[in-house]
Structure formats: structure tokens, C-alpha cells
Amino acid sequence: MQYEDLTHKIIGCAMKVHTSLGNGFPEVIYQRALAIEMEKQGLKFDREIEMSIYYEGIKIGTRRVDFFVENKIVIELKALSILDDLHLAQTMNYLEAYNLPVGLLINFGSKSLAFKRVYNTKHPDNIDYKIKS
Fold first, then answer.
1. Which of 2, 65, 95, 111 has the fewest beta carbons under 10 Å from its own?
2. Could you give all domains of the chain from N- to C-terminal order, each with its CATH number?
């Protein structure tokens, strides 16, 4: 799948952070640590970038994404004991709003790191993924 190497590298950074810090901290602590680790790994990113949301070509608001890596991958971080469908939907909405093919939902709040690669099936680069689903 597209950007698999990049998402794999990001997940590796998140695993290193989770191994070092464990669970139980607020999201911002993991966000800061992940920024340090991604920088050490040579990843280019913007943190808490405000991105515009459009409806039929008209700007209707903005949302802050936790990370935008290599101008390709949106990362949504959580520090919750359990992820639910709302968190997955939030990440999917970002992908659709910004017309990106893939993003990551990463949760540092559970005993083991939890992550999901989220695919925008409406994106033309994911036509094969849509057929396989």
C-alpha cells in the first residue's frame, strides 16, 4: 500500500516513545516525545498545524491535526484507555477533507501501543484498496 515505508517508520517512532514512557500521561506529553523521535529519525513534519476545511469549495472552518508528516500523512494521537469508532471517524474525516490517501491513528493510553492505518477509500490512489475491501 502507498506510503507503507513511511507509516512503518512513524509507527516505529511511536513504539519507541511508548516503550520509554509507558501509558498514563496526557496526550501532549506523547506528542512532544513523538516530535523528538521523528526528528531524530529524519522525518519532516508540522505539529498542530491548522488546516482549512472546505465545503463545495468554500472555506467553512479549520481543524488542527496533531502531525502532518512529509506533507503526506496525517497523524491523530490519543492517550485513552480505549479507542472507539468516533476516533477512527475523526481520522477518516481529516483524510477526506484534505484529500489524502492514508493517515495514522495512534493511541498511547493503553498498556500496549495501539495504532491503525486509516485509508481514504475515496482517494484515487486507493482504488485497489477499495476493490479488495
1. 111
2. 4-132 (3.40.1350)
